[in-house]
Design the sequence.
């Protein structure tokens, strides 16, 4: 088979799609905000722990002590960045926080959010989850008009537009700025006396509202509310702006309505299973994806084995519907980091073995159904299938709890380029031969919709090549490819 994935290191175009060196999708970003609590920064710090799975490159906190904004940021995981004295320094009853996995802009401290500026509208800080598809174009126009950018992030464009807006107050300037942007944004803003939360009209990324006593919380996922004993109230609706101030929480609908396109992949992989996202339990949807997969792609087998951690809940659903026992035949090493020293002698499947190890006593002489959430380049699936076979499995059947990934995401999820996605150019049987499985079955798009309960309000562009907001490069690609789906 001709497909040979690129081994290039990560590289990213400004405002565009990242080229990743790992055979996985990467998380995006997470935002968190607190209004009206004496321990606002501390709560935001804890909230970021709850959102850590959405971004591990950098994290930051900004608080308002009433007369100025205070900030702390760093590279790496939340627990390693913030020391007790740094969080204590962030005084005030208002705070916002951000964890980042860069989907636009380089990975370095200057791009770590929240960003903070002092403008004629006062001090403003912003934290963003999503990707703005026209950021390069707007930025070029601003640069030609004299704006000087500090970062390579698409998010900074919003701050420049706010600062230049002719609107007299921050809320109107935020609306003015966002009306010029296209793409995906779930945003939290902090000023000296208020917190603002906004979701783009299509609602690509989640944003929820919670309460803790009299305090208001905004968060990318509800699992972060549980961590601080806050109560989930509701989602910020697509196209809604909430302003939280002394006057309480006020809701506005300042943007023209657009067809809702919430990211279906939040259920497949990104969101934590203990979160409530887009009005549904992630755990329940993920399990239903596995159940639908069992109905659509049945197989005679002895055991169902999840590829941990992402395949666990779908495997549970598959096992229940298929009536095949679930066994944890692959054990994940949670503590592995990057390895710089590799054995001189060739050890079979060494890279994958660092993360996963097969349980020989469970796999030996069994017909195994492996469950994963997706196949990106196929290289990791191929290694895992070989590893399970080498551990004694008689047959290895691979089942995927989503449709084939045929296109990259332009709305805030880090995906390899189209050419590196194996399903963009190969049939299911070609992929089966490449990964060396006895059989391979994907869930259909219709099966995914059945699992989430509807079709209308979801984006599924990475499975269909039908992009709800055209991306400049995508417009060209779609024209060339005739917008045709493979598989
Ligand atoms: Fe989600 Fe895929 Fe749409 Fe991106 S393209 S928003 S990953 S469904």
Sequence:
């Amino acid at each position: 088979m001709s497909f040979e994935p690129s081994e290039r290191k990560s590289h990213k175009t400004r405002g565009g799609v990242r080229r990743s060196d790992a055979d996985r999708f990467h998380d995006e970003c997470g935002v968190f905000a607190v209004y009206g609590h004496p321990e606002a920064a501390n709560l935001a710090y804890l909230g970021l722990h709850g959102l850590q799975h959405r971004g591990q490159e950098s994290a930051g906190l900004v608080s308002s002590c009433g007369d100025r904004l205070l900030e702390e940021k760093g590279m790496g995981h939340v627990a390693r960045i913030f020391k007790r004295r740094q969080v204590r320094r962030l005084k005030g009853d208002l705070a916002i926080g951000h964890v980042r996995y860069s989907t636009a802009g380089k990975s370095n401290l200057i791009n770590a959010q929240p960003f903070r500026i002092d403008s004629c509208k006062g001090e403003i800080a912003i934290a963003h989850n999503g990707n703005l598809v026209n950021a390069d174009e707007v930025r070029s126009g601003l640069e030609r008009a004299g704006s000087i950018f500090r970062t390579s992030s698409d998010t900074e464009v919003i701050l420049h537009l706010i600062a230049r807006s002719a609107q007299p107050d921050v809320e109107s300037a935020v609306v003015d700025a966002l009306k010029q942007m296209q793409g995906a944004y779930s945003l939290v803003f902090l000023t000296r006396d208020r917190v603002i939360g906004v979701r783009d009209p299509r609602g690509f990324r989640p944003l929820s509202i919670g309460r803790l006593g009299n305090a208001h919380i905004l968060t990318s996922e509800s699992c972060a509310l549980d961590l601080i004993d806050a109560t989930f109230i509701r989602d910020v609706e697509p196209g809604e702006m909430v302003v939280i101030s002394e006057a309480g929480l006020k809701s506005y609908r300042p943007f023209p309505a657009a067809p809702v396109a919430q990211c279906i992949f939040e259920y497949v992989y990104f969101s934590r299973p203990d979160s409530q996202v887009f009005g549904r339990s992630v755990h329940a949807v993920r399990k239903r994806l596995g159940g639908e997969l069992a109905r659509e792609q049945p197989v005679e087998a002895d055991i169902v084995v999840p590829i941990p951690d992402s395949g666990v809940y779908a495997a549970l659903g598959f096992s229940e519907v298929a009536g095949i026992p679930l066994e944890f035949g692959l054990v994940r090493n949670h503590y592995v980091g990057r390895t710089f020293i590799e054995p001189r002698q060739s050890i079979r499947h060494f890279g994958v073995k660092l993360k996963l190890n097969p349980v020989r006593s469970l796999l030996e002489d069994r017909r195994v159904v492996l469950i994963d959430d997706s196949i990106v380049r196929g290289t990791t699936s191929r290694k895992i299938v070989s590893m399970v076979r080498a551990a004694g499995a008689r047959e290895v059947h691979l089942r995927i709890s989503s449709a084939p990934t045929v296109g990259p995401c332009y709305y805030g999820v880090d995906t390899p380029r189209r050419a590196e996605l194996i399903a963009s150019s190969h049939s299911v049987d070609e992929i089966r031969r490449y990964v060396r499985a006895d059989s391979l079955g994907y869930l259909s798009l219709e099966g995914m919709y059945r699992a989430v309960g509807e079709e209308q309000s979801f984006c599924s562009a990475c499975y269909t090549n039908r992009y709800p907001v055209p991306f400049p490069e995508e417009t060209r690609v779609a024209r060339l490819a005739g917008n045709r789906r493979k598989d």
